[in-house]
C-alpha cells in the first residue's frame, strides 16, 4: 500500500509525537547538535582566518595594505612625475589620494640660528605636520626642527637656516621628536623620520619641510639632485582574508596602470612597485587553512556521531511504535511508507532542531571562536553544509525504519545476524584507537620543528592534533569494556543486606548496552573537554611566559647611563613604583645581568621562579671570599666563571632560565655587591617596567631622558602560531561540550526508556517495605557510579593527555620556559558540580515515575 493509502496515521503523526515528549526533545537535540557541529567547523575556520588577518593588520604599517612605490636617488623632477602619475591613476582606480614621502641623506655642516655645525636629515611627508606634536611656531612656510635639537640649543621659529653651507628657508616651528618606534602613522618611515641616539655619530634632528614646494626649493638651493621617494596609501585595515585578497588584486591593477603610464612618459621602471601586505595575506590564509585542516577530521567524526544519534532515535521510535508499525505492515504498507511515517512524526522536531543548530552556531560564535569579522560567504557555506547534514538526517531516519521493517516483515530474521553483531562488540576497538593515538604522538614530536626553519606557522598534521581525542576515546572504550565485564559478572554479587546497592547493581546489569554507551560518551566528553581546555590554556600561558622572559617585563626600554647609575631614584615619579633598572655586560661567552634586589622581583617577569629568586637575591648582596656571588643561568660545561671587568663568579644557585637571558648561559649579579667603579664599567642599562609601553615612553620623554629599543610584551613574539593551536583546540573543547550534552541526554533517555520497567520494580519494592529514601538512594548509587566513573576516567585521562601534549604543541621550542598545563582546579570543580546536578535530576525523575505509577495498570500491561 502506498504512503497515501492509509492517510490517517500519517496525518496524525506530528500530533502523535507529543505522546512521548522526551523522544521529540532527543530527536530535536540530536539534529541541533549535528547541524551545530557542521556549521561551527566552517565558522571557526573562517573566524580563524579573519582573526589572523586582523592580527597581521595590526603588525603591519598603516600604509602597507595597498601598493607602495619607492626608489632612492631620484631627481626631484622624476620624483614629481612619479608622484603625479600615482595620484592620477589612484583617482581613476578608486583609491584614496596617496601619501608621498621624500627624504635626502645626511646633511653635515648645517646651522640653525645659534646651533652650528650640526648633522641633520631633510624630509617632507604629505600631512606629516598634522601627525607631529607642534611645540612652537607654525604660521609661515619653512623648516620644522625637532626638540631633540632645541633641547640643547636655543633654536626658535624665525632663526635662519643653512644646509650644506647654503641659506635656505628659516625655522618655521619646533615639533616633538619622534621616538623609536614611532607612532604607527610614521611606521614605514621609521628609518628616515627618527633619530637613533646611540649611533656612533648621531644626527642632531630630522628637519621637515612645511610643504612640498618648500622641500623642492630647499633641494634646489642646496643644489642636491637626489631624493628618496616613498608613495603609499592609507586604506582601512582588511578584516578578512577575502578583503585582503581584494586589496592585493586592486593593487596589482593599479601597479600595472602606473607602470604603463610611466612607460608612456619614457620613465619605465624607475620605481619599485610592491604589495607589502601580500606575505601577510598569505600567512592569514594559511592560518585559516591550518585550523580547518586541523579540525576537519574531528568535525567529520562529530557529525557522524550526530548522525549515529539519529539512527538511535530511529531505532527507539521503531521500538516504541512497534505495535502500530506491525499493524500497518500487516495491512500492506511498504517499508519506505513506514519510513515516511517516522519522518512524518519526527521530521518537524528534527527540522526545527537542525535550523536551531544552524542559528545557534552563528549567534554563539563569539563564545567558541576568536573574535573576528565574517563575510557573508562563509556564513552561507556553513548554512549550506549544515542544511545538507539536516537532509541526510531526515533520509537516514526514513532509511533505518524502512530497512528494519523490510528485514522484519518481508525478509524475516536472518539466522546468525544477531551473532555477528555480538561479535562486533567483542572486537577490541580500543586497540585500533590506541594505534591511531600512538601514530598521532609520533607526529606530534615534530610539530614545532618548522618554527626553527623560519616558517611563520608550524606545519599542521591532523593526526598530531587528533592524538588527544583518540587517547581519550581509548580510555572511554577501556572503561566501557571493564564496566561491561563487571556487569556481566555482577549476578555473583550478594548484597541483600544493603538493598539499595543490590538493586542499583541489578538495574545496571539489566541495561548493559545503554550503560556502556553512556559511559563511552561521558568519558569522551569530559576527557575531550579537559584536553581541549588544557591545551588551549597552555598555549595562552606559553605565549605569556615566553614573551615575558624575552622582554623581561611588560615593557623594556634602554635608557641613559646616568639613569642606570642613579638607580630607581632617577626614574620619573610615575615609573618609580613600576620599574626596575638592569645593567648588562657581556664577555667570555656569557651575558651578565646586574639587578636591583629591592625592585627586581616586583617589576620583572619571573613567573613560577618569583618566590625562589626572591629568596636567593639576599645571598648576592655582598662579595664572598674568592669572588662575586652569582646566580648561574643555563649552565653548560664550557661556561667560564670569569666575568668581564668583575671578580670571578661564585655560584650560589643554578636556575633554568631568567628574564632577558632565557635559557642562554649567563650570570645574575646584585648591584649591591658592586662598587661605583664597577657599575660605571657596565655597557648598557635597561628599564624593565610593568607599565604599558606608551606610558613608559611618555614619562621618559617628559623627563627629558633619552630612550631606545623599546619593546613591549604584546609584540615581542609572533602570537599567530600560538593562536592557531588555541583556535584549533577551541573546537576540541566545543566538541567536548557537545558530547557532554549528548551524554546527559543519553542518560535521561535511558531513564525514560526504562521508565515502565523501573516504575514496576520500584512499586513492588516499596510494597515490600523499602523506604522511598532508600529507593532514591539506590538510583543515586546507580547513576552516581556511572557518572563518577565517567568523570574520573575523563578528567584523569584528559588532564594527563593535556599535560603531555602542551609541550609538544610549543611553536617556539628554542625559547624558555617550557610550556606547562595551567591550574585546572576550577575545571575539575565545574565537572563535579555538573555531574552531581545531572545525577540528582535523573534520580528524581526515576523516583517520580515510581510515585506517579499505578501498580495495577503496570501489572496488567
Report on this model:
This protein is of the alpha+beta class. It has 27 helices and 19 strands. Strands 1, 2, 3, 4, 5, 6, 7, 8, 9, 10 and 11 form an eleven-stranded mixed beta sheet that branches. The chain has an eight-stranded mixed beta sheet with strand order 16-15-17-14-13-18-12-19. The longest helix is centred in the middle third of the chain and has 43 residues, at 278-320. The radius of gyration is 37 Å and the shape is flat.
Considering the chains and any ligands shown, give keywords for the structure.
861 residues; alpha+beta; 4 domains; 27 helices; flat
Question: Secondary structure elements and their pairing?
Answer:
Blueprint: H1 7-16, H2 21-59, E1 68-74, H3 76-92, E2 99-112, E3 115-125, E4 134-137, E5 143-146, H4 147-150, E6 161-163, E7 166-168, E8 171-175, H5 190-193, E9 205-209, H6 212-222, E10 227-232, H7 241-264, E11 272-274, H8 278-320, H9 322-330, H10 335-363, H11 365-368, H12 376-411, H13 417-426, H14 429-444, H15 462-488, H16 499-509, H17 512-551, E12 555-559, H18 561-566, E13 579-587, E14 590-595, H19 600-603, H20 610-616, E15 628-633, E16 649-655, E17 666-670, H21 676-680, E18 684-689, H22 693-702, E19 707-712, H23 720-753, H24 755-767, H25 772-808, H26 825-851, H27 855-860
Parallel strand pairs: 3-9, 5-8, 14-17, 15-16
Antiparallel strand pairs: 1-10, 1-11, 2-3, 2-6, 2-10, 4-8, 5-9, 6-7, 12-18, 12-19, 13-14, 13-18, 15-17
Helix pairs in contact: 1-10, 2-8, 2-10, 2-12, 2-23, 3-7, 7-8, 8-12, 8-15, 8-23, 10-12, 14-15, 15-17, 15-25, 16-25, 17-23, 17-25, 23-26, 24-26, 25-26
Amino acid at each position: 500500500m502506498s504512503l497515501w493509502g492509509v492517510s490517517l496515521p500519517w496525518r496524525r503523526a506530528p500530533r502523535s509525537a507529543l505522546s512521548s515528549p522526551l523522544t521529540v526533545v532527543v530527536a530535536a537535540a540530536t539534529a541541533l547538535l549535528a547541524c551545530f557541529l557542521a556549521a561551527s567547523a566552517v565558522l571557526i575556520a573562517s573566524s580563524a582566518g579573519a582573526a589572523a588577518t586582523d592580527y597581521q593588520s595590526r603588525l603591519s604599517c598603516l600604509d602597507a595594505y595597498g601598493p607602495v612605490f619607492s626608489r632612492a636617488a631620484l631627481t626631484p623632477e622624476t620624483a614629481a612625475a612619479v608622484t603625479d602619475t600615482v595620484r592620477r591613476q589612484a583617482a581613476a582606480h578608486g583609491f584614496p589620494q596617496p601619501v608621498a614621502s621624500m627624504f635626502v641623506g645626511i646633511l653635515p655642516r648645517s646651522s640653525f640660528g645659534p646651533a652650528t655645525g650640526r648633522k641633520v636629515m631633510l624630509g617632507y611627508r604629505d600631512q606629516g605636520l598634522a601627525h607631529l606634536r607642534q611645540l612652537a611656531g607654525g604660521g609661515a612656510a619653512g623648516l620644522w626642527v625637532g626638540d631633540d635639537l632645541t633641547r640643547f640649543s636655543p633654536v626658535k621659529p624665525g632663526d635662519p637656516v643653512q644646509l650644506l653651507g647654503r641659506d635656505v628657508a628659516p625655522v618655521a616651528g619646533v615639533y616633538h621628536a619622534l621616538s623609536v618606534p614611532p607612532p604607527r602613522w610614521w611606521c614605514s618611515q621609521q628609518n628616515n623620520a627618527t633619530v637613533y641616539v646611540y649611533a656612533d655619530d648621531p644626527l642632531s634632528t630630522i628637519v621637515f619641510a612645511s610643504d612640498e614646494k618648500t622641500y623642492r626649493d630647499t633641494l634646489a638651493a642646496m643644489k642636491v639632485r637626489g631624493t628618496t621617494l616613498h608613495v603609499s596609501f592609507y586604506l582601512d585595515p582588511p578584516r578578512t582574508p577575502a578583503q585582503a585578497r581584494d586589496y592585493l588584486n586592486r593593487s596589482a591593477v593599479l601597479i600595472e596602470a602606473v607602470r604603463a603610464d610611466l612607460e608612456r612618459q619614457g620613465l619605465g621602471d624607475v620605481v619599485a612597485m610592491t604589495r607589502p601586505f601580500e606575505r601577510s595575506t598569505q600567512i592569514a590564509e594559511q592560518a585559516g587553512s591550518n585550523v580547518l585542516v586541523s579540525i576537519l577530521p574531528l568535525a567529520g567524526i562529530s557529525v557522524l556521531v550526530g548522525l549515529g544519534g539519529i539512527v538511535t532515535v530511529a531505532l527507539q521510535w521503531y521500538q516504541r511504535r512497534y505495535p502500530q508499525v506491525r499493524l500497518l505492515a500487516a495491512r500492506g504498507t511498504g517499508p519506505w511508507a513506514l519510513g515516511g511515517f517516522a519522518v512524518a512524526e519526527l521530521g518537524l522536531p528534527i527540522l526545527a532542531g537542525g535550523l536551531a543548530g544552524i542559528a545557534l552556531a552563528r549567534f554563539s560564535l563569539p563564545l567558541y571562536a576568536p573574535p573576528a569579522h565574517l563575510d557573508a560567504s562563509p556564513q552561507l557555506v556553513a548554512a549550506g553544509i549544515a542544511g545538507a547534514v539536516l537532509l541526510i538526517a531526515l533520509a537516514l531516519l526514513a532509511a533505518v525504519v524502512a530497512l528494519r521493517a523490510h528485514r522484519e516483515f518481508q525478509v524475516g530474521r536472518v539466522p546468525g545476524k544477531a551473532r555477528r553483531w555480538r561479535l562486533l562488540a567483542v572486537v577490541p576497538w580500543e586497540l585500533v584507537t590506541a594505534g591511531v593515538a600512538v601514530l598521532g604522538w609520533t607526529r606530534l614530536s615534530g610539530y614545532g620543528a618548522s618554527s626553527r626553519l623560519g616558517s611563520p606557522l608550524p606545519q599542521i598534521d591532523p593526526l598530531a592534533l587528533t592524538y588527544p581525542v583518540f587517547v581519550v576515546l581509548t580510555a572511554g572504550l577501556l572503561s566501557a569494556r571493564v564496566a561491561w565485564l563487571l556487569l556481566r559478572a555482577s549476578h555473583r554479587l550478594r548484597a541483600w543486606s544493603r538493598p539499595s546497592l543490590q538493586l542499583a547493581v541489578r538495574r545496571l546489569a539489566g541495561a548493559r548496552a545503554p550503560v556502556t554507551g553512556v559511559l563511552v560518551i561521558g568519558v569522551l566528553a569530559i576527557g575531550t573537554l579537559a584536553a581541549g581546555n588544557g591545551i588551549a590554556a597552555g598555549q595562552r600561558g606559553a605565549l605569556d611566559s615566553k614573551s615575558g622572559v624575552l622582554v623581561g617585563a611588560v615593557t623594556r626600554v634602554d635608557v641613559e647611563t646616568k639613569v642606570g647609575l642613579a638607580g630607581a631614584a632617577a626614574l620619573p615619579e610615575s615609573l618609580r613604583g613600576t620599574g626596575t633598572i638592569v645593567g648588562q655586560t657581556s664577555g667570555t661567552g656569557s651575558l651578565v645581568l646586574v639587578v636591583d634586589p629591592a625592585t627586581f622581583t616586583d617589576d620583572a617577569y619571573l613567573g613560577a621562579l618569583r618566590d625562589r629568586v626572591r629568596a636567593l637575591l639576599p645571598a648576592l648582596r655582598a662579595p664572598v671570599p674568592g669572588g662575586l656571588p652569582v646566580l648561574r643561568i643555563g649552565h653548560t660545561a664550557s661556561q667560564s666563571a670569569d666575568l668581564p671587568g668583575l671578580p670571578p663568579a661564585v655560584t650560589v644557585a643554578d636556575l633554568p632560565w631568567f628574564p632577558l637571558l632565557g635559557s642562554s648561559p649567563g650570570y645574575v649579579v646584585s648591584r649591591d655587591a658592586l662598587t661605583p667603579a664597577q657599575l660605571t664599567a657596565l655597557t648598557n642599562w635597561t628599564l624593565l617596567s610593568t607599565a604599558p609601553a606608551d606610558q613608559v615612553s611618555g614619562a621618559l620623554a617628559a623627563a627629558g631622558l633619552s630612550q631606545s629599543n623599546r619593546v613591549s610584551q604584546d609584540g615581542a613574539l609572533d602570537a599567530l602560531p600560538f593562536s592557531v593551536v588555541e583556535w584549533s583546540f577551541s573546537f576540541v573543547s566545543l566538541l567536548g561540550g557537545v558530547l557532554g550534552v549528548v551524554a546527559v541526554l543519553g542518560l535521561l533517555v535511558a531513564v525514560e526508556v526504562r521508565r515502565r520497567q523501573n516504575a514496576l520494580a520500584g512499586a513492588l519494592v516499596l510494597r515490600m517495605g523499602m523506604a522511598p529514601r532508600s529507593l532514591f538512594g539506590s538510583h543515586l548509587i546507580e547513576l552516581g557510579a556511572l557518572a563518577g566513573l565517567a568523570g574520573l576516567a575523563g578528567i584523569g585521562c584528559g588532564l594527563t593527555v593535556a599535560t603531555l601534549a602542551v609541550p609538544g604543541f610549543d611553536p617556539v621550542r628554542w625559547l624558555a620556559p617550557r610550556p606547562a598545563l595551567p591550574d585546572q582546579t576550577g575545571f575539575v570543580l565545574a565537572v563535579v558540580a555538573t555531574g552531581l546536578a545531572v545525577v540528582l535530576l535523573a534520580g528524581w525523575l526515576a523516583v517520580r515515575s515510581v510515585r506517579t505509577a499505578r501498580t495495577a495498570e503496570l501489572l496488567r500491561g
